[in-house]
Amino acid sequence: MFVATPESWHLVNGHTDSIRQTIVEKLYSHPVMRAAVLAEMDILKLEMGYDHAPVLERMHIDHVLTAWLRLRDAEIQFTHCLSGENVSAAAAQFRQDFLESAQTRFLRASESLEKIRRLARNTPAMQINIAHDGGKQVNIQSDAPACGKK
């Protein structure tokens, strides 16, 4: 059933959406703020080309969005920690390390998405194998836009 209708995968394997929903609920208690952040994520998803992306790219877009939410969480926690009175140096250092870790994860996720996109662009869109008499084979590779040009 899932092979025939891949768009239904999220019904069983929708962990990414539920993880992001949990993070949003943790960050924002007000329903309007939750809705605004979820809408912002939907906009980012569209701007990243999620709907027309191949499966591997969609997985990485999901990962970037989750990392973005976790970075937002770390930023909020770090800001609250620094704005509080009587904050210990150990607590401040913990929050700073947490923030740096979230920044690193977000950067890695973004770089991975870009690498996947770059590799997809560099992969030839077409390959033609021509067998000649005598067992000699000629392979011709071309990008799709260049096909038909002389």
Note the gap between the termini.
45 Å
How helix-rich are the residues, as a percent range? 55-70%
What Rg do the Cα atoms give?
A: 23 Å
Percentage beta strand:
5-15%
Order of adjacent strands in the largest pleated sheet:
1-2
Q: How much is the average pLDDT? A: 82
E-strand count: 2
What composes the largest sheet?
Answer: 2 strands, antiparallel
DSSP summary: helix tally: 5
Shape: elongated
Low-confidence stretches: 144-150
Order of helices and strands: HHHHHEE
Structural class: mainly alpha
What does this molecule look like?
The protein has 150 residues and is mainly alpha-helical. It contains five helices and two strands; from the N terminus they run H-H-H-H-H-E-E. Strands 1-2 form a two-stranded antiparallel ribbon. Strand 1 and strand 2 form a beta hairpin.
Briefly say what this structure is.
By secondary structure, this protein is mainly alpha-helical. It has 5 helices and 2 strands; from the N terminus they run αααααββ.
Topology:
Layout: H1 9-12, H2 15-27, H3 31-47, H4 55-83, H5 89-122, E1 126-131, E2 137-142
Antiparallel strand pairs: 1-2
Helix pairs in contact: 2-4, 4-5
